[in-house]
Amino acid sequence: MNSSDQDQKVRDYGLRMLARREHSVAEFSEKLKKRFPDADIQVLAQEFVDQDWLSDTRYCEAFIRHQKITTQAGPFLLHQKLRQKGIRPDMIQEQIKQHFPEPEQAIFKQKLSDKKRPLIKAQNDFEREQKLRRYLAGKGY
How far apart are the C-alpha atoms of 14 and 50, rounded to whole Å? Predict the structure, then answer.
């Protein structure tokens, strides 16, 4: 197989990945590198970024929107997960402020608290509040 055939296979695979869902640049590069270890992934990733087919900003938006709805993840957990996906910390902070503002975070936190509080088994109010705080911390609030 010559290099142009290999390049076309890598390119087609990358396009199919992006057709399914958004990816961060780091995640996209990592997945392609696993499948095609000899290919020049950085050049392809940069081309896709230049064409606006691959965007960390769009990935952040989609990820934040999905996580806050499906897992009720708070800002700290979102930040941690996005860092693991290879997104820059300054971009994460900007996107969280824009797509999950503090008033909305407070509403989500209150709803989680109201839902969880009656289910907590505790000897007294202090213990119940401690368990609730640990639960909210685990959710990223």
Answer: 14
0.85 cut: is pTM over it?
yes
What domain range includes position 32? 1-54
Say which CATH number the domain at 47 has. 1.10.10
Read off the tokens for 69.
């709805």
Burial group, residue 22, by CB count within 10 angstroms (0-12, 13-18, 19+): buried
Both 44 and 71 in a single domain? Answer: no
pLDDT digits (tens, 9 = 90+) for 92-139: 999 999 999 999 999 999 999 999 999 999 899 999 999 999 999 999
Domain termination residue (choose one: 54, 72, 90) = 54
Instruction: Give residue for tokens 């606006």.
Output: 52
- Is the pLDDT at 62 greater than 60? The verdict is yes
Contact between 48 and 34 (Cβ < 8 Å): no
